Amino acid sequence: MGLQPTGSIPILTPSTGATPTQVNTYDVSLTVPLGTPGSSFLLGAIQVFESSLNVQGFQALIGRDVLKNCLFVYDGRNSLFSLAF
């Protein structure tokens, strides 16, 4: 995507143990198009950090900082979810 880092932070993960690793941070915004043409949910200027989740098949994780603006319902038995704004 050609993003330029805006800073860096130390993080702890299960793979780093007690030793933090330094990762780049980026300022991004999130836009989710809604059903009506021209309408969307916009969450601007959140700080995200890079990770190695892509080796596990993930491009990104949506955290509680985003979900606090939404209604998220997960139906595990039927492998379904819904996200409302």
Description:
The protein is mainly β and 85 residues long. The chain has one domain (7-84). 5% of the residues lie in helices and 45% in strands. It is built from one helix and five strands; from the N terminus they run βββαββ. The protein has a three-stranded antiparallel β-sheet, with no helix packed on it. The protein has a two-stranded antiparallel ribbon with strand order 4-5.
Helical percent range? under 10%
Average predicted local confidence, pLDDT = 83
Tally of helical runs: 1
Q: What is the number of beta strands?
A: 5
C-alpha-based Rg, rounded? 16 Å
What fraction of the residues are assigned to beta strands by DSSP?
Answer: 35-45%
Query: Termini separation (Å)?
Result: 26 Å
Secondary-structure content class? mainly beta
Low-pLDDT ranges: none
The helix/strand order is: EEEHEE
Q: Name the quaternary structure.
A: single chain
Strand order of the largest sheet: 1-2-3
Question: Main β-sheet, in a few words?
Answer: 3 strands, antiparallel
Spatial shape: globular
Domain count: 1
What is the gist of this entry?
With 85 residues, the chain is mainly β. Helices cover 5% and strands 45% of the residues. The radius of gyration is 16 Å and the shape is globular.
